[in-house]
Amino acid sequence: MTAVELLAELARGGVAVACDGATLFLRGPRTRLDAALLAECRRRKAELIATATRLPMCCICAASIVERLPASWGGEPCHHACGEVAFGAAKVARRYG
Ligand SMILES: [Zn+2]
After folding, report:
1. Of 15, 58, 68, 87, which residue is most buried, by most CB within 10 angstroms?
2. What is the Å distance from ligand 1's center to 79 Cα?
3. CA–centroid distance, residue 88 to ligand 1 (Å)
4. Mean pLDDT across the chain
5. Structural domains in the chain (count)
6. Does some domain include residue 60?
7. How far is the CA of 36 from the centre of ligand 1 (A)?
8. Rounded to two decimals, what is the model's pTM?
């Protein structure tokens, strides 16, 4: 499994990946991040950070975007799900029809 495939598997499970320097952040439901997957992420941390930093970053949640066709919000790339949430919030705030 390549690093991009591993990042995509995490994303499918609702786990967002972000990095700050040499720190890798995994955010998402703990039930989707079982011990084996977490161990693989720890073992391949440097590779995941190197790959994630090359990918576009979501302007809403700041996690890497592994989707092939990312959405955009305010002209900046975002995850489809993040864009939907932002659109819903803007709609409630009556900024959109
Ligand atoms: Zn996002």
Report:
1. 58
2. 4
3. 14
4. 89
5. 1
6. yes
7. 25
8. 0.75
Task: State the distance from the centre of ligand 1 to the C-alpha of 97, rounded, in angstroms.
Answer: 23
What confidence tens digit (pLDDT) does each residue in 20-55 have? 899 999 988 888 888 899 999 999 999 999 999 999
Question: Which residue range is the domain that position 51 belongs to?
Answer: 3-92
> Quick check: is 51 in a domain?
yes
DSSP category for residue 85 = H
* Domain contains 50: yes
Q: Which residues have CB less than 5 Å away from ligand 1 (the ion)?
A: 58, 60-61, 79, 82
Residue that the structure tokens 């190197």 belong to? 50
**Distance, CA of 84 to CA of 69 (rounded, Å):** 14
Task: Tell me the CA distances in angstroms from 67 to 7, 51, 57, one per residue in order.
Answer: 10, 14, 11
Q: Is residue 97 part of a domain?
A: no
Q: Are 13 and 28 in contact (CB under 8 A)?
A: yes
What spacing in Å lies between the alpha carbon of 32 and ligand 1's midpoint? 17
